Amino acid sequence: MATLARSTMRSPWTVILTGAVIVTLAMGVRQSFGLFLPQMGAALDISRSSFGLAIAIQNLVFGLAQPFVGALADKHGAGRIAVGGALLYAAGLVLASLATSAIGIHLSLGLMVGLAMTGITFTVILGVVGRVVPPESRSMAFGIVTAGGSLGQFLVVPGAQALLTEFGYRQALIVMAAAIAAIVALAAGIAGKPSASVDGGPAQSAGQALREAGGDRNFLLLNLGFFVCGFHVVFIATHFPAYLTDKGIDPAIGASSLALIGLFNIFGSYLFGLAGDRLRKQYVLAGLYAARGIAIVLFLLLPLTPVSALVFAGVMGFLWLGTVPLTNGLVSQIYGVRHLSMLGGVVFLSHQVGSFLGAWAAGYMFDLSGNYDAAWTASIVLAALAALIHLPIRDAPIVRAEPA
């Protein structure tokens, strides 16, 4: 792959592979948090809605801070941002292991981990990848990095369950903190300051880029669609293991389901990224969201068994984060890559607002009704809406006037 512009960053494949490993660690640990709900809830005497609130805070902070952290990465480079994110993430996990109340969990797993994630996950990493990969290969490269998050889920979730079973949640969190700290060394692979302009047109300030995108209907539709993605994935990642346990399914099936989601999304993320380089991304996204809705309907209509739970996990896993390379691919295609981390961060904020509701509102509705029926219904309705709103998106690059 040739670079789009000269910069002080590493070669494309170095950036892609290093970024994928960083995302593997960061997302793998994050996707295991749902396994901690039963044990931490019992040990600390906190409700599901209270634990869900910690994950909801994490996702909301993750989203609110992402545009600002993305702008810093666009200006100063991703390496420094990744080091800070890794150190804060590890500290948050250690403090969570020491927490004695819901407030401690809200501050550590919620605030600290949420802020830390902004520097070592998709938005910042895809921003640096987008600047060193040519447009015709960009969605595929995004898919490779996104698949790293799923590989982490497949590898880390079973390990987290084993640590929980053998040593308890406090020791499990300490081990995961040590794994996250390894990202500090990996940050060198994505270090370097971006070029002033890599889009071939007139240079833009961050404010100009925000005003341009904010006034475009396509950007609004992308934000609405990614909101739905956030609701789906965090609702399932946080509450699906508990849902299965409530129905009398062995807790090991819940852990295996999360691992299967990660396994199948390795293929889904890559293949959807590949599809985005060959087909209209907005139409692929519409089909993906429609498929999610159909999968949920069939899962709820069929008898619940360990096999049906695992099959559902595999199907949802294939559809899980295929939205990421496609959505970020559209942002880069329409608005360019100079401010991709920042603009991708704005879209990701919408994703995290959906994530907040998927984690907290589902737990709140469970506490009120004793079941997840309302959350499943909301997931189906949102999937249908997301499929429809992607159809009118126009994917032509914005043409900017040259300065006089």
Automatic annotation (TrEMBL):
Residues 12-398 form the Major facilitator superfamily (MFS) profile domain. The chain crosses the membrane at residues 50-69, 81-103, 109-129, 141-160, 172-191, 219-240, 252-272, 284-304, 310-331, 343-362, 374-393. InterPro entries: MFS, MFS_dom, MFS_trans_sf, Proton-linked_MCT. Pfam families: MFS_1. Keywords: Membrane, Transmembrane, Transmembrane helix. GO terms for molecular function: transmembrane transporter activity. The keyword Acetylation does not apply. The keyword Phosphoprotein does not apply. PROSITE patterns: MFS. PANTHER family: EG:103B4.3 PROTEIN-RELATED, MONOCARBOXYLATE TRANSPORTER. This is MFS transporter. It comes from Sphingomonas gilva.
